[in-house]
Amino acid sequence: MNYFVTAIDTDSGKTLVSTILCEALQADYWKPVQAGYPRDTEAVAKLLDPQRHVFFPEGYLLQTPASPHAAARIDGVTIDLQTLTPPATTRDLIIEGAGGCLVPLNDHDFVIDLAAHCHATVILVADLYLGSINHTLLTVEALRKRNLPVKGIIFNGPSNAESERIIMLHTGLPVLLRLPRQEQVTRQTIIDYAKELQQHWHA
Predict the structure, then answer these.
(1) E strand or H helix at 16, and its extent?
(2) Which string of DSSP letters, residue by residue, matches 34-46?
(3) Which Enzyme Commission number(s) are listed (predicted)?
(4) Residues 1-48: tens digit of each pLDDT
């Protein structure tokens, strides 16, 4: 099965969540569009057992850390959604998006259109900050407008019980995991949170 990791904003924790998902599901990893360095694929690979996962090359590896549509223009290319075919694997595939779900890939397509293109179930990462309730509810509204299946929400960062409560109330989505801010992420960190995620996955 394909799972698409998207978020309510940039730098929300998608790469950390993708790594945990790979460990929990013993899944492979693919980042269709990478804009700028360091590469998220390398970050994920460093925290997982390379004998147990496949890290597929990016469909587009762009040089500039910017919105994919802008980075592609700087590189003199146009991102074509039809060229981004999920790599073949016999296991679950974790597909990590770029930025938030309505970040443009080109003049017509958004990052979230990749989820539908890849026939993937969405996992939404929501970091908690002033304004995150609005951003989370708007994101869920955009996902539902596109009739995309959503597995659940992963909250990342310092806990805010009231923000979490109101988001859960209005979205009706299950919380798959809560990730407090990590001072240091190690292989053991990934293993520990993967075990916790497994407990909620089929609940």
Answers:
(1) helix 14-25
(2) EESSS-HHHHHHH
(3) 6.3.3.3
(4) 999 999 998 888 899 999 999 999 999 999 999 999 999 999 999 999
Give residue 203's pLDDT.
64
In contact, 176 and 123? CB cutoff 8 Å: yes
Ligand-binding site membership of 96 (annotated): yes
Cα–Cα separations (whole angstroms), residue 49 to 1, 22, 56, 82, 187 = 21, 10, 15, 31, 9
Q: Is 40 annotated as a binding residue?
A: yes
76 belongs to an annotated ligand binding site: no
The pair of structure tokens assigned to 14 is: 């998608």
- CATH 3.10.20.310 describes domain 2-201: no
How wide is the angle at C-alpha 198 spanned by C-alphas 193 and 200, nearest 5°?
A: 100
> Could you give the C-alpha distances from 163 to 128, 135, 151, in angstroms and in order?
8, 12, 20
pTM (predicted TM-score)? 0.95
Residue 126 β-bridge partners: 155
* Residues noted as catalytic: 31
- Domain boundaries along the sequence of the chain: 2-201
Give the integer Cα–Cα distance in Å for 182 and 154. Answer: 15
Interval 90-124: pLDDT, tens = 999 999 999 899 999 999 999 999 999 999 999 99
Say whether 15 counts as a known binding-site residue: yes
